[in-house]
Amino acid sequence: MTCHICGGVLQARHTTLPFKVGDDRIVIIKGLPVLQCGNCSEYVIEDAVMERVETILNGVDTTVELETLSYVA
Length: 73
Hints:
Layout: E1 10-21, E2 25-37, E3 43-44, H1 47-58, E4 66-70
Parallel strand pairs: 2-4
Antiparallel strand pairs: 1-2, 2-3
């Protein structure tokens, strides 16, 4: 697969990304599998992974402003 920004090759990697949930909450997910460009560092989250992320985000504690979780497939 090639990068939609620069045309470089996308490589499977694991990374840590923040997700804003609502107006005042941030969830950081560690070990998230992405496809990342070796040239410009742009990344793509595959559909199946994003579905799992949405499930994770829907289940977070609503009283916590900042939460760090590990991605588990």
